[in-house]
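Methods — Computational structure assignment.
A single polypeptide chain was analysed. Its primary sequence is given first, followed by the predicted tertiary structure written as structure tokens.
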Amino acid sequence: MVRAFAGACRRGTGGVLCLTKILLANDGSEGAFKALGTAISLAKHYQAELHMICVEELPMLPTTIDEVVEEREEADHRYEKVIERAQSLCYMQDVDVVTHVVYGHPVPAIIDFIQKHGIDHLVIGFMGHSAIYNRIIGGKSDKLVRLAPCSITVVK
């Protein structure tokens, strides 16, 4: 289901915010589904188009092209239940969602998608890690907050 959305502007304490395209990054975790609830509320409030992206990480060093093809086929089935659950939750709230499964590394894939599709706002779930992990490696949510070329909501 895809509808044409005009979007709506709302005045807040920080000024006027206009959202027409909202993107939810969903890895299938409970945190991502919590974030979906926020994304649905925002889409309804702003009368915005809601997109959901699932990023399937491909092997770092695939040995053959067949391995890449096999990974992509598995990814389509791996996110099938995630997409069905999200569509069901959106349907119950009378919100249409456009789903996308892309391949690559999550942060660059999401940033690329935002730029190519003119996304106004990104909604992500937060997955907490230890302080040592965050200092050494950093979290995906931290990287997205730094690199996203749009406004972002991180749901804890």
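Note: The chain is about 45% helix and 25% strand.
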